[in-house]
Amino acid sequence: MLSMEGLSSFEQIAIWSVLGIAILGLLYAVYLRNQILKEDKGTAKMQEVWGAIRAGADAYLKRQLKSILPLIGILTLALFFSVYIVEPTPEAIERFSDFDRSSVRLIVGFGRAIAFVMGAGFSLIVGQIGMRMAVQANVRVASAARRSFSDSLRIAYRAGTITGMLTDGLGLFGGTIIFIIFGIAAPDALLGFGFGGTLLALFMRVGGGIYTKAADVGADLVGKIEAGIPEDDPRNPAVIADLVGDNVGDCAGMAADIFESYEVTIVSGLILGLALWHITGDLDWIIYPLLVRGIGVLSSIIGTYAVRSDEEERGDAMKAIFRGYLSSASISIVLFGLTAFFYMGNDIPGTWWRPFMATTVGVLLAIGIDRLTEYFTGSHSPPVNEIKKATNTGPATTILSGIAVGYESSVWSILVISITILSSVFIFSGIPGYSTAEITTFVLYGVAMAGIGMLTLTGNNVAMDSYGPIADNAAGIGEMAWSGDPDEGTEKAQQIMADLDAVGNTTKAITKGVAIGSAVIAAVALFGSFMVDVSRAQASLGIPLEGQIQSIGIRVDLPQVFVGMLIGGALPWLFSSFTINAVSRAAALIIEEVRRQFKLGVLSGEVEPDYATPVAISTTAAQKELVSLALLGVITPIVVGMVLRIEALGGFLAGAILSGQLLAVYMNNAGGAWDNAKKLIEDEPSDPENNLGKGSERHMAAIVGDTVGDPMKDTAGPALNPMIKVVNLVSVIIAPIVVQYTELGVVGWAVILVLVAILIWAVRQSKRPTPDVLAR
């Protein structure tokens, strides 16, 4: 059953050790969970607010599960039967040589389907358990803030680390188990594993993003702008929905997002490692990515536990978090070098440093994007202060200033990613004895290793992201629980939570930047996997090497390829349009509901606010958009490949990667900068007569900017990450089918017509008009 043939004793021990490290990461998450649950939950009023948040979060998760299960079932069957359309790969035939071809198809189809369910299930577990732990932690952080800054930081970050270690542990566990069972045929099943995780991430990103921003926009526009009440005021009926939204968007959504990047990079790394095994005859290229993943889990355990502060009242949370981040990075780089030297140095003399340098460049890329995103979105950075100045002249200049910041940040981000890809070219060029096409495979393997290196610090990245909504929810619980009974202790606690929350905005922006960067690197690596798989499919049809796509490349001078690239470039814009429009529709319903309750006397205290109705509105609205938006990413590449053929599908992928990267970074950083500019004004002493602080004209302008940026940074921008990878994975899966069937026939065109009809339905579903609130 298990496949360890061809592995040395050291390699077999190493693979089992990697599996053990994955389990260690999961046990570390359990250990931290037990620590967190022992912490004090605060006063009865705090627990009352917390109970409402927890009930809303549970309701959302249950409703989401019901919405996505039918499509998961259909795609599981599709993946199972997909292997019956084409011949089994040579690796699958070799791995299961004791069986005939029909049985090999059955085994591979069953393995791909089970791996798909496993990837989807693990992604769901990461999102759901991570979100529930964030909800458990927020009230405990608020309670700890009454004691000290250090306790609050420790609880918030370690609660986030639970999600990080689940991401690390389950991702590594799944990939390693599949490799142990399938051996050199692992990429066949790993495609299902990656697709399952990516599709679930898309669902959770889109659903969570629509939920959180519909509630946030509705609460802010009616509460802050129209009624003039503070953020998280208990009189605002949408405040609980807003707090729940922070968890479903930034905890469940981001955790699933980074988990699928974690899966996809290992999928592309093993596919390209398999190609290098065919070229060099060395299994080291396949084993090394798994060893790197194991090192990453160990480094994250050490680095995340090192995050702490000794300050009692005011401290620098960002400094403590980044110190842990650098600790993990340093440990990783040293162990990468030792592993490459002692393992690959024996089998591949003079070449061991190349994969080591590629993974190191990935770690440096993560740090570079971290610093770049903090520069453009951090509270004390020049760009954010420029937006703050722009609020002096109203909402229009505030919005223009934020747009300019977002545009510029996209340019610098893509330059950093370009340098990373070029680094792989320099690292792997000049290897003697190989053809140009083979050197290209080495380079693409280097890009995949850079992605694996970048996500080495997944435990730290997810911990940073989950820390943000935990701190935000803690501040909201404090605002609601203590608003009518302030004293010296609660004022100190509120200041501590305000400090933690301000850093949380930056950490969320940083991890979104890392998620976008890793999505692009993973997509480029998958693009390389696409090229490799297409060439192998062409070779199986007897097409000579000089006629294969790896040799001739993708020629943009061919009209159909250029059209494919145009369609790919347009897809992220259409997807973003639909997600933002979905937020607008749902926010309109929230606004109507909050206004209705205010008219009943909620503001004056005559009537208690009904928190449940806005929660129900956001939950229902978010689920309506899931399937239609997911279908855009799944069906479009299939139609392009079947109609315009394989070269055009390659152009489609290139267009989607470039356009999606630029658009995602722009929306993420512009939204983050607007948010922190608003926070800076809110931190000023309140003096509306002199246009300072909360309630001032500058504050109103900043709120408008923040409201515009909210669906950009928390819905449309982050959702592009899994969308890009869904498109890439679907393309890799269907590539052999497109190559094999050059003539579509009646059945082929019938399939295309059905798929186009489904696409038209999805577009019409996403273009439903926004409710006319005034008409009601």
Q: What does this protein structure show overall?
A:
Helix 2 (44-82) packs parallel to helix 18 (612-624), helix 5 runs parallel beside helix 7 and helix 6 (186-226) packs antiparallel against helix 21. The protein has 22 helices and no strands. The protein has helices at residues 9-37, 44-82, 90-95, 101-144, 149-182, 186-226, 239-280, 284-305, 317-347, 353-377, 382-390, 395-428, 436-454, 458-482, 488-540, 549-552, 559-599, 612-624, 626-644, 646-682, 697-740, 745-766.
In short:
With 776 residues, the chain is mostly helical. 82% of the residues lie in helices and 0% in strands.
- Shape, please? globular
Helices and strands, in order, run as: HHHHHHHHHHHHHHHHHHHHHH
Largest sheet: none
Bin the helical content. Answer: over 70%
Strand content: under 5%
CA-atom Rg in angstroms: 26 Å
**DSSP summary: helix tally:** 22
Which features characterize this protein?
single chain, 776 residues, mainly alpha, 22 helices
Topology:
Blueprint: H1 9-37, H2 44-82, H3 90-95, H4 101-144, H5 149-182, H6 186-226, H7 239-280, H8 284-305, H9 317-347, H10 353-377, H11 382-390, H12 395-428, H13 436-454, H14 458-482, H15 488-540, H16 549-552, H17 559-599, H18 612-624, H19 626-644, H20 646-682, H21 697-740, H22 745-766
